[in-house]
Amino acid sequence: MAYNAALAEVEEDQLTNTMSRILVTGALGQIGSELTLALRARYGAQNVVAADIRSEGKEDLVNVGPFERLDVTDMDRIKSVIDQYHVDSIFHMAAILSAVGEEKPQLTWKVNMEGLLNILEIARERHLLRVFSPSSIAVFGPETPPDPAPQAPPLHPTTMYGVTKVSGELLGEYYIHRFGLDVRGVRYPGIISSATRPGGGTTDYAVEIFYAALKNKHYECFVREDTVLPMMYMPDCIKATIELMEADHDSLVHHCDFNLAGMSFSAGELAAEITKHIPDFTCEFKPDKRQEIADSWPRTIDDSAARNEWGWEPSYDLPAMTADMLSSLSERMTRAKL
Ligand code: NAD
Ligand code: AKB
To answer: Which of 105, 149, 203, 258 could form a disulfide with 298 if both were Cys (CB 3.0 to 4.6 A apart)?
Structure first.
């Protein structure tokens, strides 16, 4: 039965415009790991295939529900996973981020651009229902008005990562207009979370500071104290991602490039907020080469398009995020004996 009945169900769901068989690429990463669990809770564990180029370190994802080793630059492998599981929608989270991107610009272009092109091509060929292609505040550059960054300024990023994110937005728009594929995406700010450590970005200090505060009561921060960047707590990130993917297509004017805001604070304000919970915490500011990347990004974001078109509203500000991060992370560190 299973095959025909399952396929009939998929087709019926596609008619009703509901995602039913989902592939998450980069599923072991900072966002992918929590997104996969949230999607499994919502759509059923067996209906959400987690995939990543590696398989170590996330037993809760690899051993519970379908998991596949998959390199997004390998077109044939993506095709075979999509066909094997009758995937109808893809959350494409595999990427190289900004700091690693400046160390390995050629690899960053290959993974971020070839990977996305493969995903979009297969989605077009297989008539998939929907693709999520995340963008970033890294699309902005030094010339962008920083306070707030508008929805549609000229985009001239100075990092390879930013170049791939602008190109990814344009490629997504091309597939929408040329082939009628339903591609959606947001420009995530720096994401702060406790379940999975970040994978080599510029905003990683806003996560590392919590590990250091709990473990050593001291942190050496790699950006200046007055560096203000847009940030978001993971529960808001997951909420935004799923809400956009479930939004009524007819209400969307934008598609792949929604500005998205959670909170903005300086590195010094973050340290001061942590000190309210850990009074003997100290932070030194020793900027390294990532400061230049941070300086090229805006301080705040105008996300009125997301608010107007699909009702976006964040739940966490700096005090609420800090309190929740400290309590979730200290629980996790105790459990893992970190
Ligand atoms: P991450 O670095 O934590 O995870 C990326 C995952 O992709 C990793 O698990 C890695 O193993 C995997 N990967 C790398 N190369 C691959 C390949 N060739 N094939 C398959 N998998 C591969 O990244 P993240 O923070 O989870 O980011 C997810 C998406 O969100 C990315 O597109 C990123 O640009 C975007 N984003 C993230 C943030 C943030 O602060 N985390 C902010 C803005 C945008
Ligand atoms: C990075 O710092 O590279 C990411 C991002 C903002 O895209 N966190």
So the answer is: 149
